[in-house]
């Protein structure tokens, strides 16, 4: 606004000078006036554009959490013992290792934990769209995912195993070559089997894949070790086959939007403390023992 006022005064002064020189027939003053006015307009436009750009940047970065006082975690509650639906959970109806960790992280930062349960493949999309603040879903840290999100300090190390029937002749990953394989869509097991070059059928839920095995419609299910134990305990006639040479160890971590360093720092501080004092190890033992006892 100050730029416009100064320009108007200059235009008025120039007009008075021009009126005393009309006999010269020179219209250069009018050209000068137009140039000055155009420059002022251009400056105002640039200022507006800068303000809009700054606003867009602020909107893109977002706040620490989408709702003040609430830390909203996205999960896929089909992955016991890390996340599953229970009659009474630690966060509403949701229970498991990850749910207990999420609740403690939120509370230690003076916030309340909330859960959005969705398909695993939708989690990172929901995170990037601002629908949730973080993802805690037994999610493995991979280079591809690190391009899209920022990961916390890893809090759990796992590996892939094979669930087969007790009379199966599958003793190693190489034995799956001519077998019908089931995996869970988006899980690390799918990535591993795909990398091996074996054909497979992907299901949205682990229970669906395991029921294919129980009903004799497939020969093997590839899934994370802790979750495999739950399914073997729940379904008679199944066993776990390990192959450390074929399946490398993987790390689980919490994902946040790129650049949300304040939230990431809050999460990392909590995780580091829980790793140091043994809280996460205790949760692992607690939920694993509950699974074994069932």
Please give the structural blueprint.
Layout: H1 2-19, H2 28-61, E1 70-75, E2 78-79, E3 83-85, E4 94-95, H3 97-108, E5 112-117, H4 123-128, E6 134-135, H5 143-146, E7 149-151, E8 156-158, E9 160-165, E10 181-184, H6 188-196, E11 201-203, H7 206-214, E12 220-224, H8 225-234, E13 238-241, E14 250-252, E15 255-257, H9 261-277, H10 279-293
Parallel strand pairs: 1-5, 1-6, 10-11, 10-12
Antiparallel strand pairs: 2-3, 3-4, 6-15, 7-15, 8-14, 9-12, 9-13
In short:
Helix content is 46%, strand content 19%.
Could you characterize what this model shows?
By secondary structure, the chain is of the alpha/beta class. It is 46% helix and 19% strand. The chain is built from ten helices and 15 strands. It has helices at residues 2-19, 28-61, 97-108, 123-128, 143-146, 188-196, 206-214, 225-234, 261-277, 279-293; strands at residues 70-75, 78-79, 83-85, 94-95, 112-117, 134-135, 149-151, 156-158, 160-165, 181-184, 201-203, 220-224, 238-241, 250-252, 255-257. The strands form four sheets. Strands 5-1-6-15-7 form a five-stranded mixed beta sheet. Strand 10 (181-184), helix 6 (188-196) and strand 11 (201-203) form a beta-alpha-beta unit. Residues 1-38 and 40-61 have low confidence and may be disordered.
Q: Which descriptors would you attach to this protein?
A:
294 residues, alpha/beta, 5-stranded mixed sheet, 46% helix
């Amino acid at each position: 606004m100050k730029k416009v006022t100064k320009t108007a005064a200059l235009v008025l002064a120039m007009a008075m000078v021009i009126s005393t020189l009309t006999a010269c027939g020179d219209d250069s003053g009018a050209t000068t006036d137009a140039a000055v006015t155009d420059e002022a307009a251009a400056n105002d436009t640039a200022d507006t554009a800068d303000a809009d750009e700054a606003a867009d940047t602020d909107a893109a970065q977002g706040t620490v959490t989408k709702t003040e006082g609430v830390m909203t975690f996205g999960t896929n509650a089909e992955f016991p013992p890390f996340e599953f639906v229970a009659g009474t959970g630690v966060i509403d109806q949701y229970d498991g290792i990850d749910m207990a960790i999420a609740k403690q992280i939120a509370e230690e930062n003076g916030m309340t934990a909330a859960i959005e349960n969705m398909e695993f493949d939708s989690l990172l999309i929901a995170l990037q769209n601002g629908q949730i603040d973080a993802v805690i879903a037994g999610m493995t840290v991979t280079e591809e995912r690190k391009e899209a999100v920022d990961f916390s300090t890893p809090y759990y190390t796992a590996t892939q195993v094979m669930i087969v029937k007790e009379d199966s002749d599958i003793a190693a990953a190489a034995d799956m070559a001519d077998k019908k394989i089931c995996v869970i869509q988006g899980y690390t097991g799918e990535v591993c089997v795909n990398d091996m070059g074996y054909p497979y059928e992907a299901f949205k839920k682990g229970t669906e894949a395991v029921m294919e095995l129980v009903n004799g419609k497939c020969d093997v299910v590839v899934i994370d070790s802790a979750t495999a134990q739950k399914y073997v305990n729940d379904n008679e006639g199944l066993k776990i086959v390990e192959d450390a040479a074929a399946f490398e160890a993987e790390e689980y971590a919490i994902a946040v939007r790129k650049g949300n360093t304040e939230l990431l720092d809050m999460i990392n501080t909590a995780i580091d403390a829980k790793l140091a004092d043994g809280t996460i190890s205790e949760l692992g033992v607690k939920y694993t023992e509950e699974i074994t006892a069932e």
